[in-house]
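Tutorial handout. Part one gives the primary structure; part two gives the three-dimensional structure as tokens.
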Amino acid sequence: MTQRGTLGVAVIGTGRMGADHVRRISEVTSGARVAAVVDVDAERAKSVAAGVEGCTAHTEPAAAMAAEDVDAVLIASPGPAHEAALLAAFERDLPVLCEKPLTPDAASALRILQAEQKLGHRRVQVGFMRRYDAEYIKLKALLDSGQLGRPLMLHNRHRNAASPPGFTDAMLINDSVVHEMDVTRWLLGQEITAVTALRPTPSDNAPEGLTDPQFVVLETDGGALVDVEIFVNCGFGYQVQAEAVCERGTARIGDGHAMVTNAAGRWGGTIAQDFVERFAEAYDREVQAWVDATRRGEVTGPSVWDGYAAAAVCEAGVRAQAEGRRTEVELIERPALYR
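Part two.
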């Protein structure tokens, strides 16, 4: 490690997420510093690096990883670039925090899983940040306690004010519902076995070519049913809500009523406008947990298996959309490294 045990991190990708992680490590996270940044846009990389003392700029991940003061890697580049960066990190046995998706499809995720197994130890934490959100943590603890009995159903709502240009039906699954897919597996401790995607009449606010909203149903190997309302052009803000229905009670999170105001004959609060605002503290907690574990020589949090499983469920979801039928999830047997 670098001086005084401070972790030198190479951030790969300096777009919206990458730049935010550079800021986070520099201003919020303890025990780490940004030692290098990487972007195919050399000028953007130089601009980001210029704002961090002692940070170097690169256009190739391998060059940044070879730097003497780089001890770990945070991957925030587009999904198709993740596989090459992960394999380069494995060659140097560097710990990695990889933003979701691990890779864009199950086949490439499986290659990463096999490569990490050859190392003989875990090296990757996948960036499913909802596992670090305070409300989800409380819900997970409650379900694990058994106080409410066995979870029977999980209702999810995932709403965005507006979708970005070029957003497709497949992206509804791969970029949005993937979070519910992962958090379902985590909350219930069960694998998802089948996916069905249902389509009501599209909203007039949906861009041409996008069927929005959609209603996705997940089945698990523990017999639970999970539904996800995905509505990425709701118009009023960003909302993520979940309600667990159990044998002896229910529990709901995401109402966003931390503060309610009364003024001018009205009562109410505010609604977050995007995921960066809604999950800011979760991202902070996620990166700090990764840094702390890495400095201890450990790897915690969502694993490569979780990234692979999410990719496999997404593939089933996209097929369910396209074919209009219930689609089973294809998973290999879970390797011993991830049990």
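Part three, for discussion. Residues 156 and 242 are 4 Å apart (CA to CA). DSSP finds ten helices and 15 strands in the chain.
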